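Standup notes, structure subgroup. Blocker cleared on the flavin mononucleotide input:
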Amino acid sequence: MKRMYYVSRFSRALSGQDIDRIGESAQRYNRQREITGFLVCLGDAFFQVLEGAGDEVDRLYHERIAPDERHKDLLRLKTEPEVEERLFPDWSMKVFNLNNAAESLPFAFREMLSSLLESHRIIAEYTQPSLLEMLEQGIRPTSVAPRRERVTVLYSDIIGFSRFAEHVAAEELIGLVNSHAEICSAAVIGEGGQVNKLTGDGVLAYFPGRSPDSAIEAALSILGEMARQRAASDATSAHRHLYGGVGLVHGMVHEGNVGSPLKRDFTILGNTVNLASRIESMTRDLDVRLTIDGSVIRSATREYPFESLGKHLLKGQSKELELFTLRTLSRLDIKDVYRDIEAFVTQGP
Ligand SMILES: Cc1cc2nc3c(=O)[nH]c(=O)nc-3n(C[C@H](O)[C@H](O)[C@H](O)COP(=O)(O)O)c2cc1C
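Run returned:
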């Protein structure tokens, strides 16, 4: 049996009658499917516990509860995938509408619940999706053993960032980093990848369990969106000079917990990860926007117009590697880009 806990927020004002209606319809359905639990309504928040057969709880959550337009911002707090006994065997869905209660205790609970909810949502924004997924499935991330996995790693960073960092105002610098991170995150998530880390002006992402095609498509979206943003920015904005290089490598990584209780990270490690940033830095030497390792080409399933950039000995590597780019991407005249950035940061637009 499975037990699941989630919180959500009203999407609009709901009356006592609205809450009763949710409860009645829930009880009718839950009784038939042997689902038990309770629903607390406090301020503009719901807190619900559902327990029953695993597939029934999942179906109820995904097909009836999540799509219900009366609430939004659903956040699964915890799932216990294998519980032996019900905690609430007599409640097919007991509703506690604490907004109706006259005493002051519900007010105290409402404050507690809303502050917990608020901090949980903020922490969720800072946390990697893979970690949240584990929590939602009832897996304790700290108990997950390290594993080896074949992935494509994508690394992107902002060209000339140290020059911007030295000269432009803090808000503008952070704006640049945020735009780059947002462009990369949207492209990576859109192609089914995971953003692993924001490394200042860099973004480290990976694509587990799929061919490198997704990473290539994400790289193309990143470069396309950056070009659009440059074109849409006026001459007074540093965004006019937002250029990034992207590097792609396919290979084995170690995925797991690193750190200590003082500071933990659930991350990927290994030569494939190091190589991605080394390969990305070669965009500057080779005047290209995208550098690709041969491992990506060997595993790609679609036909891409790969073009060899010759063999290179990269820092920290013992063997020369043949690097590639896509013939269809226009070349980057790195000297021009640096010259324009230099002129922008020293003389202004
Ligand atoms: C906060 C909240 C909790 C809900 N809990 C349940 C539930 O436990 N069981 C259920 O079948 N539906 C639940 N629902 C969904 C609705 O009650 C139900 O899908 C919707 O009213 C359609 O009902 P109908 O089948 O009677 O038209 C919940 C909806 C909300 C907003």
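Discussed briefly. Residues 2-126 form a domain with the Alpha-Beta Plaits fold (CATH 3.30.70.100).
Next: hand off to the docking folks.
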